[in-house]
């Protein structure tokens, strides 16, 4: 399954809901990890544990029956710990980097409702959504890219390959409008200057610096937040 770019495919309105993060808004639970729901049917990462993930989804009144796609960024436990959610879903495609352990992939693909898709290169997820494919040398990771009417929105797990490298890769296809997710140790803050929506989540070490440097374009991230693109 390869990626096919279409200039005609644009999401006029895409909502991203943060369903797992270190921080949490009132009424939601915070735990170390990350997950977000893109639209109504695509879950990016599953956080560190199933209970917290389900609690926050309940607070959002998420209809689990609509979720038919899960994309896992990388194999660390704070991003795949809630993968047991597949047992509560109908038929679901799960996109994982090819570098995931054979044991994890075998266990996941043994579920009768799971269609496991191993990703190594840029791959279409659905209309207007694609994955970068595996990036990085050591901890391989994939990011999600949404095509919107304002440009591309990049969703990252931890940015282990370097956020600047992920953004540079995504910019090959379209101007980057926004970036949401974990930025890890990213320190080239000038790279965010021309991005209209910056949402540093989870493992981002320089959250305060980013929010202070870009007060007009950066937003606080926490479980319970939603962002309409």
What is the name of the CATH architecture?
Answer: 4-Layer Sandwich
Average pLDDT, all residues? 94
Gyration radius over CA: 16 Å
Instruction: List the strand order in the largest sheet.
Output: 6-5-4-3-2-1-13
What percent of residues adopt helix (DSSP H or I)?
Answer: 10-25%
Order of helices and strands: EEEHEHEHEEEEEHEEHE
**What structural class results from the helix and strand content?**
alpha/beta
CATH superfamily, please?
A: Ribonuclease Z/Hydroxyacylglutathione hydrolase-like
- Specify the CATH class: Alpha Beta
Shape: globular
By DSSP (H or I, 4+ residues per run), the number of helices equals 5
Approximately what portion of the residues adopt beta-strand conformation? 25-35%
Unreliable residue runs: 1-12
What is the first-to-last residue Cα distance? 27 Å
Largest sheet: 7 strands, mixed
- The count of β-strands is 13
CATH topology term: Metallo-beta-lactamase, Chain A
Number of domains: 1
Description:
This protein is of the alpha/beta class and 229 residues long. It has one domain: Metallo-beta-lactamase, Chain A (4-Layer Sandwich), CATH 3.60.15. Helix content is 16%, strand content 27%. It has five helices and 13 strands. The strands form two sheets. The chain has a seven-stranded mixed beta sheet. A six-stranded mixed beta sheet has the order 7-8-9-10-11-12. The longest helix is centred in the first third of the chain and has 10 residues. The N terminus is likely disordered.
